């Protein structure tokens, strides 16, 4: 197994200098022991508790406490257990499970009665009936926008992970398992996925995947085949593909962009200065910008989307620059969310960004010209991807192209 976790640590991250716009809740609010983010030894109290960081940037911090706005209930309940079992029988991989989503527990308490047909994906699986096949990353998603236990507006999105559950890269923020030689893709997966999704009667779906550097085209053809099968079975469905960078292969990007999908999503993940600390060395800031630029350029009317994690040590000015860089290549949709450490082998949280600061970033993004900005502590890449506003925007773009031709 090859992982960037095994590589020598890169230079220390930039200092936590901050702008004045909005307050932030530091991950280490107490003055002692000191923040150990640059390789200094742990204090005696930490050593006594058995805490030993594997690298200067990772390891559990025994004194860090999540703020109240990030605390979620553990996954439990009959509905959650049935969902996990049915997904296993279908052999479908979900981002919620593989990436250890902090909000997955909400599925056991999802208020199905508050969701509309376009929000909840229902499939009859073997002996089970009407199993909710939702895969998204927030209480708002499970509950149709209402948060944990609240009434919602009925907007949620299915996110299906293609190409298996094993990634060939080892990014320091991601909990998906890694290997140099993952199992080969299921050749029938595109058709099986398309048949299943078409049978659910939904209007919007997100297809994503692990990185597959072991495949010549990075999995682009597998994505494209799935999109074409979906569109053939249900021409009106809107399909978003949240892809890897395909190692910067622009032909692979163009092939997928021209397969019939409606939204091309690729995450830049973090600011430029943090790329080598946060992402696998095979990823890169300019490479990600190149993917999004190519997707926009090779198909007229293509809607593009990206995402940024906050709380890794980035500054306000760096966030603004990243947002400006995305707008410079005409990215339409942006999501911003709080980074949360999956395990002690992954990067520590440098700070917890307040909901008020996330509101500031939403307003700032909209002022730059993003068509839609989802910004909040628990927002993830697929957050409210099927939002009615987004659906209408995509459909309007498609209609404009048809009328122009």
Topology:
Layout lengths: L23 E3 L17 H5 L29 H13 L2 E2 H4 L23 E2 L7 E2 L6 H4 L15 E5 L26 H12 L3 E6 L10 H14 L4 E5 L7 H8 L5 E3 L9 H4 L6 H13 L5 E8 L5 H13 L4 E6 L12 E3 L1 H14 L3 E4 L12 H17 L1
Parallel strand pairs: 5-6, 6-7, 7-8, 8-9, 9-10, 10-12
Antiparallel strand pairs: 1-11, 2-5, 3-4
Helix pairs in contact: 5-6, 6-7, 7-9
Family: Belongs to the radical SAM superfamily. Lipoyl synthase family.
Protein name: Lipoyl synthase, chloroplastic
Keywords: 4Fe-4S, Chloroplast, Iron, Iron-sulfur, Metal-binding, Plastid, S-adenosyl-L-methionine, Transferase
The gist of it:
With 405 residues, this protein is α/β, with parallel strands linked by helices.
Provide key terms for this protein.
TIM Barrel, 405 residues, two-stranded antiparallel ribbon, 12% strand, disordered N terminus, 8-stranded mixed sheet, single chain, globular, alpha/beta
């Amino acid at each position: 197994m090859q992982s960037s976790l095994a590589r020598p640590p890169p230079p220390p991250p930039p200092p936590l200098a901050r702008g004045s716009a909005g307050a932030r809740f530091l991950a280490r609010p107490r003055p002692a022991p000191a923040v150990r983010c640059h390789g200094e030894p742990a204090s005696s109290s930490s050593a006594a508790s058995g805490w030993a960081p594997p690298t200067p940037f990772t390891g559990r911090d025994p004194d860090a406490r999540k703020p109240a706005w990030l605390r979620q209930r553990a996954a439990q309940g009959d509905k959650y257990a049935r969902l996990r079992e049915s997904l296993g029988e279908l052999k479908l991989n979900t981002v919620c499970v593989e990436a250890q989503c902090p909000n997955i527990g909400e599925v056991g308490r999802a208020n199905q009665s508050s969701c509309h047909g376009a929000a909840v994906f229902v499939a009859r699986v073997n002996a089970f009936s009407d199993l909710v096949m939702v895969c998204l990353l927030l209480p708002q998603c499970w509950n149709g926008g209402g948060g944990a236990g609240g009434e919602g507006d009925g907007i949620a999105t299915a996110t299906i992970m293609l190409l298996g559950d094993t990634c060939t890269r080892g990014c320091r923020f991601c909990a998906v398992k890694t290997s140099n030689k993952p199992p080969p893709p299921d050749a029938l997966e595109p058709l099986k996925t398309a048949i299943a999704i078409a049978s659910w009667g939904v209007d919007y779906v997100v297809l994503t995947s692990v990185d597959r550097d072991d495949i010549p085209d990075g999995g682009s053809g597998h994505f494209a085949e799935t999109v074409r099968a979906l569109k053939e079975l249900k021409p009106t469905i809107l399909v978003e593909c949240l892809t890897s960078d395909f190692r910067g292969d622009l032909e692979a990007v163009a092939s997928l962009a021209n397969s019939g999908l409606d939204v091309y999503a690729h995450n830049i993940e973090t600011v430029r200065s943090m790329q080598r600390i946060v992402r696998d060395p095979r990823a890169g800031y300019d490479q990600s910008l190149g993917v999004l630029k190519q997707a926009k350029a090779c198909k007229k009317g293509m809607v593009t989307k990206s995402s940024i994690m906050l709380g890794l040590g980035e500054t306000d000015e760096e966030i603004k620059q990243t947002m400006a860089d995305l707008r410079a290549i005409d990215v339409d949709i942006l999501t911003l969310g709080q980074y949360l450490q999956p395990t002690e082998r992954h990067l520590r949280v440098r700070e917890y960004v307040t909901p008020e600061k996330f509101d500031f970033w939403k307003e700032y993004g909209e002022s730059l010209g993003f068509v839609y900005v989802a910004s909040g502590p628990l927002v993830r890449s697929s957050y409210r991807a099927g939002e009615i506003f987004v659906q209408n925007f995509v459909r309007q773009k498609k209609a404009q192209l048809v009328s122009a031709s």
